[in-house]
Design brief:
This protein has one domain. Helices cover 65% and strands 8% of the residues. The protein is built from eight helices and four strands; from the N terminus they run ααβααββααβαα. α2 packs across α5, α2 (23-48) packs parallel to α7 (173-181) and α6 (136-159) runs antiparallel to α8 (186-224). It is globular and about 65 Å long. The N and C termini lie far apart (57 Å). 30% of the residues are buried.
Length: 242
């Protein structure tokens, strides 16, 4: 049990060291992932459907602190409401009563985006940390190259399946693409939403596992010390020993 605890603490200590050593890499990748999660569906819908007309934060949010502290509202009701309330939204108007499309994000969406950004930021910080410490060769020999390829696949999948709210269907980004390009039926969008939700969970767990495995490989390489130098054989002189 003590060895397991030391191994776990070593993994998290390695992640923290990598982030401290490469803060710009961590912050840059994290911000890029969050920005793409937010703006990719807006760009897609604006290009293929109609440019958005306005963006706003939920005006009710200024009353949120007083409402959250109100003794007349139960704690369960507060959690339920705050987990579903929209923080901001983009709206594209239409000639009809309903918007042409709308994109909204709530607290769970924002938390998920921040977590996704932190995970991929940590992965790339670990990558550059390993290269700087010249442990990349030992790490790659133990499977780090395959981890890098898996991360690239997960990253691409994640950017197209991160959930968001879309007016009329509550669809994630994958159904947004279908809605924008093909005008799919509500049943098809619901199916795509389910597939996208499952894919999002796979991405989150898979990316987290990739970070933990990479940190474990780097920690193991660091604690093992430098690789032993190759043995130098005796130079052949062409004479037999006395």
């Amino acid at each position: 049990m003590k060895s397991i605890a030391r191994g776990i603490s070593g993994v998290f200590a390695t992640i923290w060291r990598a982030i401290r050593a490469r803060p710009l890499v961590f912050a840059g990748v994290a911000l890029a992932v969050v920005a793409l999660d937010i703006f990719l569906p807006i760009i897609v819908l604006s290009v293929f459907r109609k440019p958005y007309d306005y963006f706003t934060f939920n005006p009710w949010l200024k009353h949120a602190p007083a409402w959250a502290l109100s003794p007349t509202v139960t704690f369960a009701r507060k959690i339920e409401f705050l987990s579903n309330v929209a923080i901001f939204w983009f709206i594209a108007n239409s000639p009809y009563d309903e918007p042409a499309w709308g994109f909204s994000a709530g607290i769970p969406d924002i938390v998920r985006w921040l977590y996704m950004g932190a995970v991929f930021g940590a992965y790339f910080a670990l990558w550059f940390y390993a290269r700087a410490r010249r442990t990349a060769g030992r790490w790659a020999a133990t499977g780090g190259g395959r981890g890098g390829a898996a991360s690239a696949v997960l990253s691409t999948l994640g950017l197209f399946t991160s959930p968001c709210g879309v007016t009329g269907c509550g669809a994630p980004v994958l159904p947004v693409l279908g809605l924008a390009l093909q005008g799919l039926t509500s049943g098809t969008l619901a199916l795509l939403a389910t597939i996208s939700h499952v894919a999002s969970v796979v991405v989150l767990y898979g990316a987290t596992l990739a970070v933990l495995v990479l940190a474990w490989l780097i920690n193991r390489a660091d604690t093992a010390g430098p690789a032993p130098a190759p043995a130098v054989g005796r130079e052949h002189t062409g004479t037999s020993p006395a």
